[in-house]
Write a structure and sequence with these properties.
- The complex is a heterodimer of chains A (186) and B (457).
- Chain A is 32% helix and 17% strand.
- Chain A has 186 residues and is an alpha+beta fold.
- Chain A folds into two domains: 13-44, no CATH class; 47-185, 2-Layer Sandwich (60s Ribosomal Protein L30, Chain: A).
- Chain A has a four-stranded mixed beta sheet with strand order 3-6-4-5.
- Chain A is globular, with a radius of gyration of 18 Å.
- Chain A starts with a strand and ends with a strand.
- The model of chain A is unreliable at 18-57 (pLDDT under 50).
- Chain B has 457 residues and is mainly beta.
- Chain B is built from four helices and 30 strands.
- Chain B has helices at residues 29-35, 74-90, 118-121, 167-183; strands at 7-8, 57-66, 93-95, 127-136, 139-148, 153-162, 192-197, 205-210, 217-218, 226-231, 237-242, 249-254, 259-264, 269-275, 281-288, 291-298, 303-306, 314-319, 325-330, 337-342, 349-350, 358-363, 369-376, 378-385, 392-393, 401-406, 412-420, 422-429, 435-436, 446-451.
- Chain B has a six-stranded mixed beta sheet with strand order 1-6-5-4-2-3. In chain B, strands 9-8-7-30 form a four-stranded antiparallel beta sheet, with no helix packed on it. Chain B has a four-stranded antiparallel beta sheet with strand order 10-11-12-13, with no helix packed on it.
- In chain B, helix 2 runs parallel beside helix 4 (167-183).
- Chain B is elongated.
- The two termini of chain B are 15 Å apart.
- The chains are: A alpha+beta (186), B mainly beta (457).
- Strand 1 (5-6) of chain A pairs parallel with strand 9 (217-218) of chain B, so a sheet runs across the interface.
């Protein structure tokens, strides 16, 4: 017999951290434009209602899409994904056009902000892939900035290999999953 | 999570007069044997099982004699069932089918001289566990003893008091003592297993359970992503990574106080980490502008030291058992490889050179070896001297074998494997690469095992 104890009744949660308050202030300052939601510590178990981008995101983060079951349904938002080689985070030549197109859209929509999400395929370990996804997200952010997008409008996040679009174990599927996704908010 | 106190009864000389009552007094085996006039030993004492292998020792687990309150044998069954599961998981024993047992434990005694060893020798039992239980109101008194059948001698005995809910822990502690008596080294079953599972839906949540699969406890309940549980030695704290605030962050759960804190770094976003054995420090992988480096923090999140400073990836940190070293994964050579460095900072030493994807290092409890996963198509578990040297492959390339976590006695490594389809947690015997398990069951995938230290008194 397995007894499951549901945890968390009466748990107390707080945000500690080195200079937690100062960091929060700094982050909010940096991300003020990005609408820093100061929900970090509030959520013990329930996640925020949407992504940190706020309520007005046009396609939502991949995590919120995963939560509501729409991840991979094609609701991709106005910007297109770019893709990467295995264990690689360099922007591929053929994705230059995608990034230029994404930068142009952002230029045409000056009120919009974007969170670049780095994703990985299922090979590799979870923890290494989170770091690899961060590299991929940063690579696209840097590229957008060189194209004239203000760095303050572009945030990054990595989901590692946790949010695949496709779950088959073959190269065509892995290639789809090794991506940067651009979640737009206004 | 409660940790009930189980009081072990004082170990003193046996009172052979207390046949009819629960003998609360457990003696060392030699004294008892002498007192009851065990047969003279002509042959050398078979003291230790010499290494697990194809030759399993046969053990019989007799029911506990009811000395009042357990007439339906519920607690006896719970105790014996847990001991059975633990001894099976140990890889040293073959449990003789109870249907073969000749003696009825209720009609015989459990102390030396009160039962007939011939009943157990005739079914080819090398070892025998007997005992007794008495329930008085809410108090449970339980005695269990281990006998060497061939030598007709008592090897070990333990007495426990507690409540009915403590009986499984009594069983685990007794099983650990059986291993100590028979192999010379205490067993690792009075411990917790932390792990990640999708058993309750699509979302990876953190759970704990006993090694033998009981006391399942769901720590997190947020529909996001939760990963990488790690314990301090007291099992007071469990550190894990969660996306519950919609971005990755480390959370330190104080399981006794039921408090949780988010561990932050001014250096950037915390994407992984581990807690030190003494529970005082956290080594965190902190990402900033795409670069991930390791920082040593206090449990409260104050920065003590920057450990790595490369423009690439430094992740998967693990403390050595004495807290003096950190093993981690870095891509500084161009591929993910394992490095070791002092936990206060200093020059890292590259440990792995074989294979182009080595990660998730874990120090053995004695600190002399590091287990890790290496990708050869899929992953297998390897072990390598902590100072560097030749790696040995431990798993058999069935499925993908990931996330090694040592048992505190150093004989076993828990790991996740897809060998039977879904990812499950298995146990590997390090000495002979025997694979035991799975330890987990259910609908989802189970990953990221973390074997705690012994739970203590």
């Amino acid at each position: 017999m397995t007894r499951v104890q549901r945890g968390r009744g009466g748990w107390v949660s707080s945000s500690r951290g080195m200079v937690g308050a100062r960091v929060a202030v700094m982050l909010c300052a940096i991300l003020a434009i990005a609408g820093c939601s100061s929900k970090k510590a509030a959520a013990v178990n329930a996640p925020g209602p949407g992504s940190p981008l706020g309520e007005n995101n046009q396609n939502g983060s991949s995590l919120s899409q995963f939560q509501n079951g729409s991840l991979g349904s094609g609701a991709n938002g106005p910007l297109n994904d770019i893709h990467f080689g295995y264990n690689d985070y360099t922007i591929q030549p053929q994705d230059g056009d995608v990034l230029r197109s994404n930068a142009k859209w952002l230029g045409d929509h000056p009120q919009s902000r974007v969170q670049v999400e780095g994703h990985c395929d299922e090979r590799g370990s979870e923890d290494y892939n989170i770091a690899l996804g961060a590299k991929r997200a940063q690579a696209a952010k840097d590229y957008l900035v060189t194209l004239g997008v203000s760095p303050g409008r572009v945030s990054t996040i990595s989901y590692g290999k946790e949010l695949p679009l496709c779950t088959d174990s073959d190269e065509s599927c892995w290639a789809q999953n090794r991506r940067d996704h651009f979640a737009v908010s206004q | 999570m409660r940790r009930r106190k189980i009081n072990r009864i004082m170990s003193v000389r046996a009172a052979l007069t207390s046949y009819s009552r629960l003998p609360l007094i457990i003696a060392c085996a030699a004294l008892i044997a002498a007192n009851v006039g065990a047969p003279a030993r002509a042959q050398p004492i078979k003291m230790y099982i010499q290494g697990p292998g194809s030759q399993l020792s046969a053990i019989s687990l007799s029911g506990l004699k009811d000395l009042g309150g357990d007439s339906d044998h519920t607690l006896s069954s719970e105790f014996v069932g847990t001991v059975r599961r633990d001894l099976e998981l140990s890889g040293y024993f073959r449990i003789i089918d109870p249907h073969a047992y000749i003696e009825d434990p209720q009609n015989s005694g459990y102390e030396l001289g009160q039962f007939n060893f011939a009943d157990w020798r005739s079914i080819n039992s090398d070892f025998l566990v007997k005992g007794a239980i008495k329930i008085d109101g809410r108090a449970v008194q339980l005695t269990a003893l281990l006998y060497d059948v061939a030598q007709q001698r008592r090897m070990m005995g333990k007495g426990f008091t507690g409540s009915a809910a403590d009986v499984p822990r009594m069983a685990r502690r007794f099983a650990d003592a059986v291993l100590e008596s028979t192999t010379g080294q205490k067993g690792p079953f009075d411990c917790k297993l932390g792990f990640v599972s999708t058993r309750d839906g699509r979302f990876k949540e953190v759970y704990t359970q006993s090694i033998d699969g009981q006391d399942l406890f769901r720590l997190t309940d947020n529909p996001t992503i939760n990963l990488f549980p790690s314990w301090d030695h007291s099992a007071h704290y469990l550190l894990y990574l969660s996306y519950k605030s919609m971005e990755p962050a480390l959370y330190l759960a104080d399981l006794q106080a039921k408090r949780e804190t988010r561990v932050m770094s001014a250096r950037g976003r915390v994407i992984g980490g581990a807690i030190s054995p003494d529970g005082q420090r956290i080594v965190a992988a902190v990402e900033h502008a795409g670069t991930t480096n390791l920082f040593m923090l206090t449990r409260d999140g104050e920065e003590l030291a920057q450990l790595t400073d490369t423009s690439g990836i430094n992740v998967s940190p693990a403390f050595s058992p004495d807290g003096s070293k950190i093993a981690f994964t870095s891509d500084r050579s161009g591929t993910p490889q394992i490095y070791v460095m002092p936990s206060g900072g200093g020059a890292p030493k590259r440990i792995t050179y074989s294979g182009d994807y080595n990660t998730t290092p874990a120090f053995s409890p004695s600190g002399d070896r590091i287990a890790y996963q290496s990708r050869r198509g899929r992953f297998d578990i390897f072990v390598i001297p902590a100072s560097g040297g030749d790696p040995s492959q431990l798993t058999d390339s069935e499925g993908s074998n990931e996330y090694p976590s040592w048992s505190p006695d150093g004989r076993y490594i828990a790991f996740s494997s897809t060998r039977s389809g879904r990812s499950r947690i298995y146990v590997l015997m390090v000495t002979n690469q025997k694979i035991i398990g799975p330890l987990t069951e259910g609908k989802g995938d189970d990953t990221c095992p973390a074997w705690s230290w012994w739970l203590g008194e």
